[in-house]
DNA sequence: ACGCTCGCATCAGGTGGGAAACGG
DNA sequence: CCGTTTCCCACCTGATGCGAGCGT
């Protein structure tokens, strides 16, 4: 039942769209910038704006919305360049109250702390509702699927009267959830929901089109996920890394949509990193207030616009500063040591950016379990730290042996990197995913050669359809595999859009992506964990890792991963056992880390990285692709 | 002379590390 | 006392501004 209930609830909640204030100038922004190729620009632009502001002022504050504004780049699309400043906040953003959050929203995934989660294959894959289990209701009672995203008053409430049915109303509740009875936090609200279905657009039907979403940098996410992703939160806000980046298909090209990310509690627990692994310790604080929604700066915009290129949320910042919610539409307020699950919401709106209150089916939600993370103020797991260093361009300074030449390092690492990058560049970049064909990338990855590899390597793309995913966090292995199946994938392949290459994120361009893909990765990193076990042993992480991958795959990865890594690579570091410290400028040594870590063997991640890179090179597409049923 | 391209310098901002501060 | 949070640091990326060089 739960399933159904959940779905309903979720759907409902989802359905309940946010309300967009008229002011939404959305129209302007929203204008399809057809021509404008670059979404990137948007991201770029802000600097100046941001700059305007004192350091603290983040783009977000500045109103990332129009990154380009002011800058030379301006709005490529022709969008109106708004001055930086709050005023500039994207209409959409404004519309969605950030704060919405109800304290109690959990998106629960797995019941148990780790084990459960992990164990469940589903963690990563959507799984049948039935499987899911546990959704936790918030103590508060409020359950909402969306909860988080919707502010009681905000989003949902305001919103659509029509949707009041869902609960909304004034915010009181989260509609759906409640109604539904079931668990509130079901991860995949929309989808199934009763409304769900209804809510979900019918394929083909205009508004109702059912969208499909790919998690572009899924491989990278998986790497982190294996170790239990951690995201730093700071007062001034810290960007996510990996950041959320999606490709969307299946939208009505002419319809307008608002796209935003909501971050909700993934479980009702408070977590602590102990003994080299994450363990629960007490209950989560559901009363945390603060903005939980980040509206994509380009919202609202047309379906064609959203489908044209990768949609990334690289500027999204995470903070623990509750006071930042008002002004910072770019910041999502989280609580340290709590586990969160990002959700992507796509809401069809009018050209003006106003949601159609009468049609609750216009909201679709997508959840990628592999994007779950624990918010921390300081990294706990050195594996994560190393992954961040290895893949985040801004952290290059912390790489061992980082040399401008990069080549200098004997290790495979660097040498490899360039290579892959290049490939990346050549291959991927081409479109950075899409170029010529957006699809393809995918395609490549998906089908062919890679397929084989995929086993070892994560699939390139994961496509998700609206919430529908029953399982919350967990990925359904079956699904997983299935998805790989050509059939599944093909669809995408079909779609070829002339995309621009623009990488969604200005930052982390190639490198990043590459990194995402695993290109850049170098490999080694130390772990803090005493246990030293690869993720397998870890409580939580392990689960993750496995969750998403089919067992076989997992095995392979596991074995291969650590092993495969070219010794050389690590060796580089390895020398380091002692060196490590020295070499690593500031690396934190993990107790357990032993030389092993440094040892030649690469960690799975590393491996993966390479694998990914390989994959990427081939097809590139690392996208998580979920389809709802 | 004018316009365009390229390269360098500068600035803003992001990153993790480490130590200090804080709080239970 | 211990765990968590905050602040500052050095390092790096990316964007922008400016000037030099080159072609028309």
From TrEMBL:
Signal peptide: none annotated. Keywords: DNA-binding, Nucleus, Transcription, Transcription regulation. The keyword Glycoprotein does not apply. Residues 215-400 form the T-box domain. Residues 1-85, 532-552, 557-576, 583-605 are annotated as: Disordered. Transmembrane segments: none annotated. Pfam families: T-box, T-box_assoc. One of its GO terms (biological process) is positive regulation of transcription by RNA polymerase II. Gene3D superfamilies: Transcription factor, T-box. It is found in: Nucleus. GO terms for cellular component: chromatin; nucleus. GO terms for molecular function: DNA-binding transcription factor activity, RNA polymerase II-specific; RNA polymerase II cis-regulatory region sequence-specific DNA binding. Residues 22-39, 590-601 have a biased composition (Low complexity). This is Eomesodermin. It comes from Gopherus evgoodei. The lineage of its organism: Eukaryota, Metazoa, Chordata, Craniata, Vertebrata.
